[in-house]
Structures are given as C-alpha cells and as structure tokens.
Specification:
Elements: H1 5-19, H2 28-35, H3 39-51, E1 55-58, E2 64-67, H4 76-84, H5 109-124
Antiparallel strand pairs: 1-2
Helix pairs in contact: 1-3, 1-4
Length: 143
Amino acid sequence: MKVSTRGRYAIRVMIDLAKNDVGECIPLTDIAKRQGISEKYLEAIVALLVKAGHLTATRGKNGGYRLKRAPKDYTLKDILETTEGRFAPVACLETPVNTCERANMCPTLNMWVGFQKVVNDYFEGITLDELLDDNACPDDYSI
C-alpha cells in the first residue's frame, strides 16, 4: 500500500487550513504558496475535499476554503479515503462485500482482512488536531 501524492497533499491542505484558521476563508493561492504545491494541482484536491464534505468553499473576492468541522473531528482515515479510496491490500477487499468466487476457500483472506484492519484502525486513531503540532508523532511512533 502506498499513499499517493494527492493523499499526502490533502493532509497538508487540511493541516494548513486548521493552523491558519482565523474565522475567514483562506484563498487557495495562500495555501499553495505556504505548502509549495501547484495551485492547479490543489484545485483538484480541494474539489474532492469539498465534495466529501470536509471543506466549505466560497467564491468571490473574499473566497477560499475553510474546514467544516473542528480539527479534532477529522481522522486521517476520513481524509485519505477521500483521495485514495478504501485501504484495500488486495482487490477482493475493495468493496464492502467480497464477491471473489474463491473467498470461502482462500487461505490468505484472513491475513489480508487483518492487515486492512490494522491500517484502518491506525489512521482512524489519528485526528487532524493531533498533527497540528509540527513535532507530533501519534502513538509513540517516532522517526
């Protein structure tokens, strides 16, 4: 499993919006400059985040983006599933119902289900709020 640039940038956008929240919309140009990311690329990412209900978008002179909820109410799983889809280590787990004709006799299915659960639980356990501190590393996973 590899998180794409789009997923990593979506997290950076959400952190940027949380850190710079002063009660007004934040223009995409400001986010792009602070994050060193192309504004054009960010347009596609924020469109996904708006569609998923994570952000509010306002057009016009004082337009821009804001978080819809408090940072503590977003998990990384919420954000990453918006850009990456479900965390499925194998194709048969990409949908809620496993339709693989071999599922009932697959010797590795439980292993893949367990791996998926570990990844989902890990990202579900980290909130956007926890990442606002530049030195934060959740659950004592230090680098």
